[in-house]
Description:
Blueprint: H1 2-6, E1 28-37, H2 41-44, E2 47-51, E3 57-61, H3 65-84, H4 87-103, E4 119-122, H5 127-137, H6 141-154, H7 161-171, E5 180-187, E6 191-199, H8 242-251
Parallel strand pairs: 4-5
Antiparallel strand pairs: 1-6, 2-3, 5-6
Helix pairs in contact: 5-6, 6-7
Amino acid sequence: xxxxxxxxxxxxxxxLTNDPSWKGRAILNLVASARTHLSSDEAYGAALQVExxxxxxxxxxxxxxxxxxxxxxxxxxxxxxxxxxxxxxxARYVVVYSYTFCKRRRRTPLINxxxxxxxxxxxxxxxxxIDGVGRSLGLGEEDLEPSRMTLHRFGNxxxxxxxxxxxxxxxxKRLRGGEKVLMISLGAGFMCNSCVWEVLRDVGDVNVWxxxxxxxxxxxxVNPFADKFDWIHQxxxxxxRLEDYDRAQFDM
Length: 252
Protein backbone atom coordinates (compact mmCIF):
# COMPACT_ATOMS: atom_id res chain seq x y z
CA UNK A 1 0.00 0.00 0.00
CA UNK A 2 2.78 2.42 0.91
CA UNK A 3 4.48 1.88 -2.44
CA UNK A 4 1.25 2.65 -4.25
CA UNK A 5 0.74 5.82 -2.21
CA UNK A 6 4.24 7.20 -2.82
CA UNK A 7 4.73 6.18 -6.44
CA UNK A 8 2.49 7.95 -8.92
CA UNK A 9 1.96 7.75 -12.67
CA UNK A 10 3.48 10.49 -14.77
CA UNK A 11 5.40 11.10 -17.94
CA UNK A 12 7.49 13.64 -19.78
CA UNK A 13 9.15 13.98 -23.15
CA UNK A 14 11.77 16.21 -24.74
CA UNK A 15 13.12 16.69 -28.24
CA LEU A 16 16.90 16.36 -28.13
CA THR A 17 18.83 17.25 -31.28
CA ASN A 18 22.23 18.38 -32.51
CA ASP A 19 20.79 19.95 -35.66
CA PRO A 20 22.05 23.58 -35.81
CA SER A 21 18.89 24.70 -37.61
CA TRP A 22 16.93 24.22 -34.35
CA LYS A 23 19.15 26.56 -32.36
CA GLY A 24 16.75 29.48 -32.59
CA ARG A 25 13.87 27.40 -31.20
CA ALA A 26 15.70 25.53 -28.45
CA ILE A 27 15.28 26.54 -24.81
CA LEU A 28 18.05 24.40 -23.28
CA ASN A 29 21.56 23.39 -24.27
CA LEU A 30 23.14 20.24 -22.79
CA VAL A 31 26.47 21.28 -21.26
CA ALA A 32 27.65 18.07 -19.57
CA SER A 33 26.39 14.74 -18.23
CA ALA A 34 27.66 11.86 -16.09
CA ARG A 35 26.42 8.35 -15.25
CA THR A 36 27.50 6.27 -12.26
CA HIS A 37 26.56 2.63 -11.61
CA LEU A 38 27.67 0.99 -8.35
CA SER A 39 28.26 -2.77 -8.28
CA SER A 40 28.46 -3.73 -4.59
CA ASP A 41 25.92 -6.14 -3.09
CA GLU A 42 24.72 -3.47 -0.65
CA ALA A 43 24.14 -0.98 -3.47
CA TYR A 44 22.35 -3.57 -5.59
CA GLY A 45 20.08 -4.55 -2.71
CA ALA A 46 19.32 -0.97 -1.69
CA ALA A 47 16.30 -0.83 -4.00
CA LEU A 48 14.71 -4.03 -5.29
CA GLN A 49 11.44 -5.08 -6.85
CA VAL A 50 10.73 -8.55 -5.47
CA GLU A 51 7.84 -10.86 -4.62
CA UNK A 52 6.83 -12.14 -1.20
CA UNK A 53 5.89 -15.72 -0.30
CA UNK A 54 2.39 -15.21 -1.68
CA UNK A 55 3.57 -13.87 -5.01
CA UNK A 56 2.73 -10.23 -4.35
CA UNK A 57 5.17 -7.90 -6.01
CA UNK A 58 6.60 -5.04 -3.96
CA UNK A 59 9.40 -2.52 -4.08
CA UNK A 60 11.79 -2.74 -1.15
CA UNK A 61 14.07 0.08 0.03
CA UNK A 62 16.72 -1.23 2.45
CA UNK A 63 18.70 0.48 5.19
CA UNK A 64 21.68 0.61 2.81
CA UNK A 65 19.88 3.07 0.52
CA UNK A 66 21.22 6.33 2.08
CA UNK A 67 24.84 5.13 1.97
CA UNK A 68 24.46 3.86 -1.60
CA UNK A 69 22.98 7.18 -2.67
CA UNK A 70 25.81 9.18 -1.09
CA UNK A 71 28.49 6.96 -2.63
CA UNK A 72 26.92 7.15 -6.09
CA UNK A 73 26.54 10.91 -5.82
CA UNK A 74 30.18 11.40 -4.79
CA UNK A 75 31.52 9.28 -7.66
CA UNK A 76 29.21 11.01 -10.11
CA UNK A 77 30.18 14.53 -9.10
CA UNK A 78 33.88 13.74 -9.33
CA UNK A 79 33.28 13.39 -13.06
CA UNK A 80 30.66 16.09 -13.60
CA UNK A 81 31.67 19.08 -11.48
CA UNK A 82 35.10 19.77 -13.02
CA UNK A 83 33.25 20.25 -16.32
CA UNK A 84 30.79 22.86 -15.06
CA UNK A 85 32.26 24.70 -12.06
CA UNK A 86 34.90 27.42 -12.43
CA UNK A 87 38.52 26.36 -11.97
CA UNK A 88 39.01 28.72 -9.05
CA UNK A 89 36.23 27.00 -7.07
CA UNK A 90 37.69 23.55 -7.74
CA ALA A 91 41.11 24.80 -6.62
CA ARG A 92 39.66 26.41 -3.49
CA TYR A 93 37.87 23.19 -2.53
CA VAL A 94 41.01 21.08 -3.04
CA VAL A 95 43.04 23.41 -0.80
CA VAL A 96 40.40 23.53 1.94
CA TYR A 97 39.81 19.78 1.79
CA SER A 98 43.55 19.06 2.01
CA TYR A 99 43.90 21.38 4.99
CA THR A 100 40.93 19.74 6.74
CA PHE A 101 42.33 16.27 6.06
CA CYS A 102 45.76 17.19 7.43
CA LYS A 103 44.18 18.66 10.57
CA ARG A 104 42.01 15.53 10.87
CA ARG A 105 38.85 17.51 11.30
CA ARG A 106 35.66 15.50 11.12
CA ARG A 107 33.56 17.98 9.19
CA THR A 108 34.15 17.76 5.44
CA PRO A 109 34.07 21.12 3.61
CA LEU A 110 31.37 21.70 1.00
CA ILE A 111 32.04 22.77 -2.53
CA ASN A 112 30.15 25.90 -3.58
CA UNK A 113 27.74 24.53 -6.18
CA UNK A 114 26.28 27.98 -6.82
CA UNK A 115 29.58 29.23 -8.18
CA UNK A 116 28.59 27.74 -11.54
CA UNK A 117 25.00 26.51 -11.19
CA UNK A 118 21.90 28.57 -10.41
CA UNK A 119 19.08 25.98 -10.29
CA UNK A 120 18.86 22.43 -8.94
CA UNK A 121 16.48 19.66 -10.00
CA UNK A 122 16.84 17.10 -7.21
CA UNK A 123 15.16 13.75 -7.79
CA UNK A 124 11.77 13.99 -5.98
CA UNK A 125 11.86 10.39 -4.81
CA UNK A 126 10.96 11.17 -1.21
CA UNK A 127 11.48 13.67 1.57
CA UNK A 128 14.58 11.87 2.85
CA UNK A 129 16.16 11.90 -0.61
CA ILE A 130 15.57 15.63 -1.07
CA ASP A 131 16.78 16.46 2.45
CA GLY A 132 19.88 14.29 2.12
CA VAL A 133 20.96 15.67 -1.25
CA GLY A 134 20.23 19.21 -0.06
CA ARG A 135 22.47 18.80 2.99
CA SER A 136 25.25 17.19 0.97
CA LEU A 137 25.30 20.04 -1.54
CA GLY A 138 24.72 22.86 0.93
CA LEU A 139 21.44 23.91 -0.71
CA GLY A 140 18.85 26.18 0.89
CA GLU A 141 15.08 25.85 1.05
CA GLU A 142 14.60 28.03 -2.02
CA ASP A 143 16.85 25.69 -4.01
CA LEU A 144 14.90 22.61 -2.86
CA GLU A 145 11.45 24.18 -3.19
CA PRO A 146 10.81 22.92 -6.77
CA SER A 147 11.60 19.32 -5.78
CA ARG A 148 9.54 19.49 -2.58
CA MET A 149 6.55 20.95 -4.38
CA THR A 150 6.78 18.33 -7.12
CA LEU A 151 6.77 15.53 -4.54
CA HIS A 152 3.87 17.21 -2.72
CA ARG A 153 1.75 17.65 -5.85
CA PHE A 154 2.62 14.66 -8.06
CA GLY A 155 4.39 12.14 -5.81
CA ASN A 156 7.30 10.04 -7.06
CA UNK A 157 6.86 9.68 -10.83
CA UNK A 158 10.28 8.07 -11.24
CA UNK A 159 12.49 9.50 -14.01
CA UNK A 160 9.75 11.82 -15.24
CA UNK A 161 9.77 13.64 -11.90
CA UNK A 162 12.84 15.71 -12.80
CA UNK A 163 10.97 17.32 -15.67
CA UNK A 164 8.09 18.16 -13.33
CA UNK A 165 10.67 19.92 -11.16
CA UNK A 166 11.98 21.85 -14.16
CA UNK A 167 8.39 22.63 -15.11
CA UNK A 168 7.86 24.20 -11.69
CA UNK A 169 10.79 26.53 -12.31
CA UNK A 170 9.35 27.45 -15.70
CA UNK A 171 5.88 28.09 -14.30
CA UNK A 172 7.38 30.32 -11.59
CA LYS A 173 9.37 32.18 -14.30
CA ARG A 174 12.66 31.58 -12.50
CA LEU A 175 14.71 30.48 -15.51
CA ARG A 176 16.68 33.22 -17.25
CA GLY A 177 18.88 33.05 -20.31
CA GLY A 178 22.47 32.12 -19.53
CA GLU A 179 21.69 30.37 -16.23
CA LYS A 180 22.55 26.73 -15.64
CA VAL A 181 20.37 23.94 -14.25
CA LEU A 182 21.69 20.78 -12.57
CA MET A 183 19.55 17.63 -12.78
CA ILE A 184 20.26 14.82 -10.31
CA SER A 185 18.54 11.44 -10.58
CA LEU A 186 18.95 8.39 -8.34
CA GLY A 187 17.64 4.91 -8.98
CA ALA A 188 17.93 1.17 -8.51
CA GLY A 189 21.16 -0.51 -9.53
CA PHE A 190 22.35 1.56 -7.69
CA MET A 191 22.71 4.41 -10.18
CA CYS A 192 23.19 8.15 -10.18
CA ASN A 193 22.72 10.12 -13.40
CA SER A 194 23.24 13.86 -13.65
CA CYS A 195 23.42 16.55 -16.30
CA VAL A 196 23.76 20.31 -16.57
CA TRP A 197 21.64 22.42 -18.93
CA GLU A 198 22.21 25.98 -20.03
CA VAL A 199 19.04 28.07 -20.37
CA LEU A 200 19.17 29.75 -23.78
CA ARG A 201 16.38 32.27 -23.22
CA ASP A 202 13.89 33.36 -20.58
CA VAL A 203 11.11 30.79 -20.25
CA GLY A 204 7.74 30.97 -18.52
CA ASP A 205 5.55 28.12 -19.77
CA VAL A 206 3.03 27.08 -17.09
CA ASN A 207 2.91 23.51 -18.53
CA VAL A 208 1.53 20.78 -16.25
CA TRP A 209 1.49 23.21 -13.30
CA UNK A 210 -1.00 25.50 -15.01
CA UNK A 211 -4.02 24.58 -12.88
CA UNK A 212 -2.29 24.83 -9.49
CA UNK A 213 0.91 26.88 -9.61
CA UNK A 214 -0.76 29.80 -7.87
CA UNK A 215 -1.24 27.60 -4.79
CA UNK A 216 2.45 26.76 -4.48
CA UNK A 217 4.34 26.85 -2.25
CA UNK A 218 1.64 26.32 0.42
CA UNK A 219 1.96 27.97 3.81
CA UNK A 220 2.98 24.70 5.45
CA UNK A 221 4.03 21.19 4.42
CA VAL A 222 3.60 19.70 7.88
CA ASN A 223 1.91 16.31 7.65
CA PRO A 224 -0.99 16.22 10.17
CA PHE A 225 -0.64 12.42 10.38
CA ALA A 226 3.14 12.39 10.97
CA ASP A 227 2.99 11.76 14.73
CA LYS A 228 0.23 9.18 14.56
CA PHE A 229 1.71 7.12 11.73
CA ASP A 230 5.44 7.66 12.24
CA TRP A 231 5.82 3.91 12.79
CA ILE A 232 5.70 3.36 9.01
CA HIS A 233 9.30 4.63 8.80
CA GLN A 234 10.59 1.80 10.99
CA UNK A 235 12.78 -0.74 9.19
CA UNK A 236 10.62 -3.78 9.95
CA UNK A 237 7.67 -2.14 8.18
CA UNK A 238 9.34 -2.54 4.76
CA UNK A 239 6.94 -4.13 2.28
CA UNK A 240 9.34 -7.03 1.83
CA ARG A 241 12.15 -7.61 4.29
CA LEU A 242 15.65 -8.58 3.22
CA GLU A 243 15.34 -11.87 5.09
CA ASP A 244 12.26 -12.73 3.01
CA TYR A 245 14.15 -12.00 -0.20
CA ASP A 246 17.16 -14.11 0.86
CA ARG A 247 14.88 -16.99 1.87
CA ALA A 248 13.12 -16.87 -1.48
CA GLN A 249 16.45 -16.99 -3.30
CA PHE A 250 17.55 -20.13 -1.43
CA ASP A 251 14.17 -21.82 -1.97
CA MET A 252 14.38 -21.43 -5.74
